[in-house]
Amino acid sequence: GAMRSRAEVDATLQTAKLNPAELLPVAHCLSFGPRAGAGDYCLLQLEPGLGAQLEAGCSLVIRGEKHEQVVLCSKDKTYDMKIADTSNMLLFIPGCKTPEQLKADQASCNIIHSQIAGFSNNYWELRRCRPKLKKLRKLLMEDPYEGPDSQKDQTSTSSKYTTEDLLSLIQASEEEILHQLQVIDACKIEGYWRILEFDYEMKLLNHVTQLIDSESWSLSKVPLRTCLEELGSLEPREMIEHILLSYGRKYIDDAGEVYFEMQEDKICRVTARMLLQNAVKFNLSEFQEVWQQSVPEGMTTSLDQLTGLALVDKSSRPEIIFMLKVEDLPEDNQERFNSLFSIREKWTEADIAPFIQDLCAEKQTVGALLTKYARSSMQNGVKVYNSRRPIS
């Protein structure tokens, strides 16, 4: 269309009963460019921190396989992406000046003719979310490492994963993935991330604890070099070192020697797992006795080492304990609660907390989750929670 003149602009303001004195002197006249359309552009709303990262040259990555809900990752955080519809059409105008810029630039001409390059009725909204890390363990468990002599490893056709592979498959930021690899005690073997097969891990740990015992070392001062010298003929040195890193805290003494302080809770916990995985249910007092006898000399077992690994049934006579691993439960909130309520109908907050703790979003409490997914009642003076929906 023809360009508007100032007189036309003023006439329009008069018709609209607007007082020109209350407006900035500059008028924007908009027209659609020849190729302006919807769908040419996507808008993404960023929090200031993410905007600054982009401007500093960092990149944001969209992750997920075709069937997964899309997430966006920065270097260290993960965000859900949701489309937000707007009632006002959003117009894209290249080189558009804001009122602040126009105020500062008083001398600018009276009418600015701008072409609209595109428009949109929605934008992507980011919401900080929990990284979806369950899949990491699942992928690595497809082919656990059984040691250097394993025939299976030579003939195995199942996929192995590099850091790059995991970055493209796991919906989490790089830092969250690398941290989780540490949490699950994965190790890099020939460039691939692997989890040790449980029996092999136990075999390595036993070598170390037996050596500690035979040398009468303090559990807080296990020398790396001697371990490697003594056990290196039995297993690869990097495996011995990996098991020390998994079950000990590394430190260096004044003379520059590397030592490990063995982690009592972690060793007691894995010993319990070994005992529990061979029994469906275990008489609690018998279990506690066998467990204490099975851990290295000088370590003390206690049930609070088993949060998120086992459940005690106090209502049965005698009391029993059985394995329930939080990492085997579903990642989705509703499915998690469904599966917990099918295991036990009524839970106290203390019992259920370890099995839902990991579902809490930022600043969310276990109590808030329970309010949403369970209903509470009093039973013999104790608050208990059961399902909001019938459990099939």
Summarize the model shown.
The chain is an alpha+beta fold and 392 residues long.
Q: Any overview of this molecule?
A:
- By secondary structure, the chain is of the alpha+beta class.
- Among the domains are: 6-128, no CATH class; 133-195, no CATH class; 198-262, Arc Repressor Mutant, subunit A.
- It has 15 helices and 17 strands.
- It has helices spanning 6-15, 48-55, 99-104, 134-140, 151-155, 163-169, 174-183, 198-215, 224-231, 237-247, 264-276, 284-294, 333-343, 349-356, 366-373, and strands at 27-38, 44-45, 61-63, 71-73, 78-92, 111-128, 187-189, 192-194, 222-223, 248-252, 258-262, 282-283, 310-313, 320-323, 347-348, 374-379, 382-387.
- The strands form 5 sheets. Strands 1, 2, 3, 4, 5 and 6 form a 6-stranded mixed beta sheet that branches. The chain has a 3-stranded antiparallel beta sheet with strand order 9-11-10. The chain has a 3-stranded antiparallel beta sheet with strand order 12-14-13.
- A hairpin with a 6-residue loop joins strand 13 (310-313) and strand 14 (320-323).
- Helix 8 packs across helix 10 and helix 11 packs across helix 12.
- The longest helix has 18 residues, at 198-215.
- It starts with 5 loop residues before the first helix and ends in a 5-residue tail after the last strand.
Outline the low-pLDDT stretches: none
Compute the average pLDDT. 89
Oligomeric description of these chains: single chain
Ends apart, CA distance between termini: 66 Å
User: Tally the helices: what do you get?
Assistant: 15
DSSP strand count: 17
Task: Specify Rg, calculated over alpha carbons.
Answer: 31 Å
Instruction: Quote the beta fraction.
Output: 15-25%
The structure class reads: alpha+beta
Biggest sheet details: 6 strands, mixed
Q: What does the overall shape look like? A: elongated
The percent range for helix content is 25-40%
